Amino acid sequence: MPTMLTDVFRGHPIHLPHSHQPDFTSLRELPDSYTWTPKDDLLFAATPSPPATGENIPLIDLNHPDAANQIGHACRTWGAFQIANHGVSLGLLEDIEFLTGSLFRLPVQRKLKAARSETGISGYGVARIASFFNKQMWSEGFTISGSPLNDFRKLWPQRHLNYCDIVEEYEEKMQKLASKLMWLALSSLGVSEEDIKWARLNSDNNWAQAALQLNHYPVCPEPDRAMGLAAHTDSTLLTILYQNNTAGLQLLRDDIGWVTVPPVPGSLVVNVGDLFHILSNGLFKSVLHRARVNQTRSRFSVAFLWGPQSDTKISPVPKLVSPFESPLYRSVTWTEYLRTKATHFNKALSMIRNNREE
Ligand SMILES: C=C1C[C@]23C[C@@]1(O)CC[C@H]2[C@@]12CCC[C@@](C)(C(=O)O1)[C@H]2[C@@H]3C(=O)O
Ligand SMILES: O=C(O)CCC(=O)C(=O)O
Ligand SMILES: [Fe+2]
User: Fold this and answer.
1) Most CB atoms within 10 A, among 9, 21, 116, 273?
2) Is the ipTM of this complex over 0.90?
3) Domain map (residue ranges) of the chain
């Protein structure tokens, strides 16, 4: 039996201090445990932010006839892009933003009723990657994988069914969009469905798995010394992020440093995850990103983390591997990769990399 995403961490417990979550609104000063220095994260001060160069992440109109090539170029250079005319209605984006806001505005004791367990994937708590850092992040999260019914019933005894409908519709639309984006990006490399039949990544939409990560970054008394979500790559094929109209997401570009993604109302941010980097034999960049916080506005984001069915082996597309070299990576399922990431964090990719003779 393939492991469902909901069971990925069964037998792989991780201890995260959800219950020590402070009441962010009452803090007038940044506690020491929330104060970050370059010692706590080597990338903390990679460059001043925002950078002076004015380089911006591409905004791609999905109705543009050259959208596939623009997406391919963005995946190779930035590992991310924003999209307009994506077909997801403004009403649905507003609904998911409303749901996210009302979830995080609940009293902390209520949120803790749906706390993520040590071996679970779904529920309320700090980011999974928190265990790799000495300092706490200035954020709270809620992960949905599979039906949110049980958790939502605990959070909103009266209104949970409405909210479940919103999540279901949002996931359905995101699933279709993610599949479309993947095929557009692959087509820019000359890869067709026929070329990777073995991976069962066909566009019938029934093969994928996903998690929805709701993030809240409260107003922070000392944003320059705090970290909303520390630098990481996603384990996904693709991640589609909706951010409310408040800046905070930053991408790391090798030669520039941290670049802030400006919120464009109604648009969505897409980033390449580790599995797409593997599938493209390293051509698409799994971009390091993080979230910073600010002193005046609280920020919400909703990440749709999208990957293959759990028993699907992902490996570099043979067409993209030179006949004189071995593929850059060994094959791996999403389950195997998530477990490797849960133990080795940012070393996970290098652990499945093939050693090549130079
Ligand atoms: C499917 C998943 C990807 C994710 C781990 C998870 O099991 C559910 C949450 C996801 C998330 C969201 C915030 C950043 C991240 C690194 C984390 O700690 O939890 C990602 C994980 C990932 O992409 O590896
Ligand atoms: O909130 C953001 O801008 C980033 C969120 C993110 O990276 C994630 O949920 O994986
Ligand atoms: Fe992320």
Assistant:
1) 273
2) yes
3) 89-191+207-313
